[in-house]
């Protein structure tokens, strides 16, 4: 995303990888619509875009309302809006949120790289790269940081919205990171054959007990990882931690348009009249998470106690 001082220019992620085009937002309502319609997506990127949205409307109460109503699950959005409410200089605060996210991602990369063995084949999900953040990326940032150690990516396509096939694969190809694309239902097969070393994903909200909400299908991968004795790592900045939410059951899961399941790119494959569910996220219980990597370091076997320690450390 590019902030010009008078507008927020968002790389239109709906059109990737086929087309590079930007949506120009000049009001909070336009930013809110861009978030809702997935022009910009990914928890940290949504938070940054919302902060600039507040600047565009000079902190008007309606701006906060419109942005808060755009998407419910990623807590970074609400975290950014709270920070903006307390800010004396709105533009400086939005710029700080943006810059701090890149710094957090680089720190996550440095901490997380040590978790990846040389030559590790890293199965990842959704898109957690530069597109999903202010820059660099969380889980994909760790891969970036470890790329000189010969790591490679297995990108799950991530039905129904295909963030893995469209965005993660695109980022890897752009950067020359070795990447193999699979459909989501191939993950177990590859794990059973010993072709995956690590599962590494991002998060949209981490509850106080370490439960992780992330893109729908993440829970399935965590169960598979446990079954195959593979480490399951989550990478996320502190802006993704929600210490006010006690556990994953209390996290609101966004339900999106059924057309995302029945159609893609204007082509429909399901019969008219069929009932459809489209929850956009799921919750992975903390007991399935080997470690969470944040800018403060690696939290092994995360649970309520470890996260309370992290919260106290983050306040210092
Ligand atoms: O619906 P999306 O594309 O916004 O969902 C994004 C994810 O689930 C990501 O894994 C998460 O936001 C982490 S991005 C660093």
Describe the SSE topology.
Layout: E1 2-3, E2 8-11, E3 22-25, H1 28-36, H2 43-56, H3 61-68, H4 75-86, H5 90-113, E4 121-124, H6 139-145, E5 152-156, H7 163-175, E6 179-182, H8 187-192, E7 198-201, E8 205-207, E9 212-215, H9 218-227, E10 232-235, E11 241-242, H10 259-262, E12 263-264, E13 267-268, E14 281-284, E15 291-294, E16 297-300, H11 304-315
Parallel strand pairs: 4-5, 4-7, 5-6, 7-10, 8-11, 10-15
Antiparallel strand pairs: 1-2, 2-3, 8-9, 9-14, 12-13, 15-16
Helix pairs in contact: 1-2, 1-3, 2-4, 2-5, 5-6
This protein binds 5-S-methyl-1-O-phosphono-5-thio-D-ribulose.
Give the low-pLDDT segments: none
Indicate the radius of gyration in whole angstroms: 19 Å
Helix tally equals: 11
The chain-level mean pLDDT equals: 98
Tally the beta strands: 16
Biggest sheet strand order reads 6-5-4-7-10-15-16
For CATH, the homologous superfamily of the largest domain is named as Translation initiation factor eif-2b, domain 2
The global form is globular
Could you explain how this protein is built, in words?
This protein is of the alpha/beta class. The chain folds into two domains: 2-103, Four Helix Bundle (Hemerythrin (Met), subunit A), CATH 1.20.120.420; 110-315, Translation initiation factor eif-2b, domain 2 (Rossmann fold). Helix content is 38%, strand content 18%. The strands form four sheets. It has a seven-stranded mixed β-sheet, sandwiched between helices. It has a four-stranded mixed β-sheet with strand order 11-8-9-14, with helices on one face. Strands 1-2-3 form a three-stranded antiparallel β-sheet, with helices on one face. A hairpin with a 4-residue loop joins strand 8 and strand 9 (212-215). Helix 1 (28-36) runs parallel beside helix 3 and helix 2 packs parallel to helix 4. The protein is globular, with a radius of gyration of 19 Å. The mean pLDDT is 98. The structure holds 5-S-methyl-1-O-phosphono-5-thio-D-ribulose. 5-S-methyl-1-O-phosphono-5-thio-D-ribulose is lined by residues 41-44, 74, 126, 128, 132-133, 138, 163, 202-204, 214-215, 280.
């Amino acid at each position: 995303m590019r902030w010009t001082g008078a507008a927020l220019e968002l790389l239109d992620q709906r059109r990737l990888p086929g087309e590079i085009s930007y949506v120009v937002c000049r009001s909070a309502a336009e930013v809110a619509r861009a978030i809702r319609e997935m022009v910009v997506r990914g928890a940290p990127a949504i938070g940054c875009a919302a902060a600039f949205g507040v600047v565009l409307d000079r902190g008007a109460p309606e701006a906060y309302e419109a942005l808060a109503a755009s998407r419910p699950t990623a807590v970074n959005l609400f975290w950014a809006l709270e920070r903006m409410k307390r800010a004396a200089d709105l533009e400086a605060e939005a710029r700080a949120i943006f810059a701090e996210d890149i710094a957090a991602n680089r720190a996550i990369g440095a901490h997380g790289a040590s978790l990846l063995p040389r030559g590790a084949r890293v199965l990842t999900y959704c898109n957690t790269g530069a597109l999903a953040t202010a820059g660099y990326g969380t889980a994909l940032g760790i891969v970036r940081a470890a790329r000189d150690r010969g790591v490679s990516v297995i990108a799950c396509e991530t039905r129904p919205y295909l963030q893995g096939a469209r965005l993660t694969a695109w980022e890897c190809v752009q950067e020359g990171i070795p990447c193999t694309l699979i459909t989501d239902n191939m993950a177990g097969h590859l794990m059973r054959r010993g072709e995956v070393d690590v599962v590494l994903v991002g998060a949209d909200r981490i509850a106080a007990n370490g439960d992780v909400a992330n893109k729908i299908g993440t829970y399935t991968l965590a169960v598979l990882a446990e079954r195959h004795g593979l480490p399951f790592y989550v990478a996320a900045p502190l802006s993704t931690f929600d210490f006010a939410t006690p556990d994953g059951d209390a996290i609101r899961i966004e339900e999106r348009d059924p057309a995302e399941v029945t159609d893609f790119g204007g082509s429909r494959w399901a019969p008219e009249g069929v009932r459809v569910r489209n929850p956009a996220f799921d919750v992975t219980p903390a007991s399935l998470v080997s470690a969470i990597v944040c800018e403060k370091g690696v939290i092994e076997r995360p649970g309520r106690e470890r996260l309370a320690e992290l919260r106290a450390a983050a306040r210092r």
